[in-house]
Amino acid sequence: MRTRVLPISEASIDEACKVLLAGDLVAFPTETVYGLGGLGLNPDSVSKIFATKDRPTTDPLILHVSSDDLAALADDEIIAKPIPALAVALVSQFWPGPLTLTLPKGPRVPFGVTAGLPTVAIRYPAHPAAQLLLQKVGQPIAAPSANRFGRISPTDASAVLQELEGKIPLILDGGSCTQGIESTVLSLSGSNPTILRSGAITAEMISSITERQTLRDARNLQQSVPSPSPGMLQSHYAPQTPLYLAPTAIEHFDPPYQYILYEIRNSKLPPGAYLLAPDQNPSTAAQNLYRLLRQADSIGSPAILIDPIPDSNWAPAIRDRLQRASSGTALWQNGGWKLLPRAGA
Ligand code: TXA
Ligand code: MG
Fold first, then answer.
1. What DSSP string runs through 280-332?
2. Which of 40, 46, 153, 311 could cross-link to 33 by cystine, CB 3.0-4.6 Å?
């Protein structure tokens, strides 16, 4: 199959709409990462998503919707009634945007979307092209990140092409994603709201809305709840080149390793080094993370080493992804890098 890449326009969005309504898949930009979209209420399109990504069918998908009207979603039998008051408060604050909610599912959601779970993940993306596509299609679009399973999420059209060329008919090219890291996933189906995946909407931002309902983080619940989110594997989002986390700022640049620095410390960037946040802005670090991992991964180096991530609103999400992507820790000892494997990597 030939994969066409079309810049965003009325015509290309109409074309994407046609492809989707015919049951095929389209990769499209969102503010977080590119999604691999298919009709979310059509079991055949949903199966195609899993097959195209080589994704295990036990890992549920997010339904992308085109408004923050939860009552309408319940009337459409996408989510169940009654709608929690907390969900209404959260979407009025954070939608459209990078917050995914899991809620008890309605009867119209196919088994495949939720991997048989009683809950469905929904998100109203902030990207204008994604919104226009959703409006024109007139029904929810199921869309995981547009990478092959276990690989780095794509943040521009060329990365999608690298992942899925020949496997899908169309990629809508909207340039680089402004956020660069997947949405926060928040479960509202248990006794307490629980963060299943960290992202741009932080625990502090959510806590300001949840008030008396204590916010939990699934990473701290791993013993008591076996699998709060089936997709949150310990090892994920990985480049093919092993990635090692340096506990202190990298100061040695021995070839043949590749080095991702948080910010510049001398006036010149050494060969084999990349800068995550040239302007020292944490949101720039998030935006550049996957692109630089992909770039460093393409060199054929035996390892990529990365600087520690300084505290900021973005730090929990970036550290979470790096932890899952990493093979271990890099220590400078006796004039050389020592690469220590992490347990379970
Ligand atoms: O930013 C994003 O969320 C991007 C863009 C394209 O919207 N999408 C994305 O989808 O990252 P994906 O499939 O790569 O990640 C969805 C995550 C997975 O970890 C999955 O296990 C979890 O959401 N998830 C989906 N439905 C769930 C459910 N009902 N209960 C718990 N976790 C769920
Ligand atoms: Mg993904």
1. --HHHHHHHHHHHHHHHHTT--S-EEEPPPPSSTTHHHHHHHHHHH--EEEEE
2. 153
